[in-house]
Amino acid sequence: MEVNCEGCAGCCLDWRSLAPDDGAHGHERRGRYRPLDDVDNLAPLSSDEVRAFLDAGYAAAMVARLFRIDDGPSVSVGGVEVAAVRGRPAFLVGLRKIPKPVAPFDADPAWLPSCVFLDPETLQCRIHGDGIYPETCATYPGDNLALDAETECERVERVHGGERLVDGDPPADAEPVIGPGAIGARVFAHPDADRIAEAVERLAAGDATRADHAEFVGVAAASTPGRLSVDDGRYERARDRALEAESWIDGATAEWVDRVASGEPADPTTAENVEADRGAPETPGWEG
Ligand code: SF4
């Protein structure tokens, strides 16, 4: 795949606010499954990847996503009807988005929900090429092309011009990461609806806490591909690790949120102080 990513990062951002009139935006909310949360472009993780992020101390990078469903199996959890697999609430774990000062597509700097690993200054991924770089990011946009679904690259071209998708042919080995057999591998099922009733209410209200996400991260880490069963011991250890882990992401997130709340103008160069000085991996930039 040949893509022109410089100055873009459209697939790592929720940039709906930069294109409020684009009818094709909000694509994640038009199918049968509609996320409870209101964040665009979630990068979902596999069970193996959830465990790898826990090993790296990056629990703060992960969030849970549950779905409403119009016409399909569902279960009521905390007063919210959510999509279910054999009566169990179904969910994904993906990479968290937090407000960051970014200037994609030659736009003026703005606070946009951005992947925790996106370097606001270079608009490059801080874990690209790292052992924990998620498969869903490595294979994007090939999977969409293989499914004949519009890519974020094409959306950016349509709204902001330029050429992003240089070669539109999917790689021969493109294989959608969410497909048959995804249960327990990328789509998880929570074994105890009562345990997540309050968390689901908060997820639907956009108020989910670190502990709420840790509950789902624990179940995802203790899941096995092709099965609905969850290993209790592995779940408890993973949930505890998710609650206890600390990394540069925790402090950086708190500071970005404070800066937005205090009305600070968006300035991508502040990433050096907020993220790099806390230990975030540097990105190479586009020179050379
Ligand atoms: S991990 Fe990297 S490539 Fe994937 S969404 Fe986050 S910033 Fe983008």
Summary keywords:
27% helix; two-stranded antiparallel sheet; 288 residues; binds iron/sulfur cluster; six-stranded antiparallel sheet; globular; alpha+beta
Structure write-up:
The model has no long low-confidence stretch (mean pLDDT 90). This protein is globular. Strands 2, 3, 4, 5, 6 and 12 form a 6-stranded antiparallel β-sheet that branches. The protein has a two-stranded antiparallel ribbon with strand order 1-11. The protein is built from 9 helices and 12 strands. It has one domain. Strand 9 and strand 10 form a beta hairpin. The chain is of the alpha+beta class and 288 residues long. The protein has helices at residues 47-55, 135-138, 142-146, 152-160, 197-205, 210-221, 232-244, 248-261, 271-274; strands at residues 2-3, 33-35, 62-69, 74-77, 80-85, 88-95, 97-102, 110-115, 118-119, 124-125, 165-167, 188-189. Helix 6 runs antiparallel to helix 7. Iron/sulfur cluster (SF4) binds next to loops.
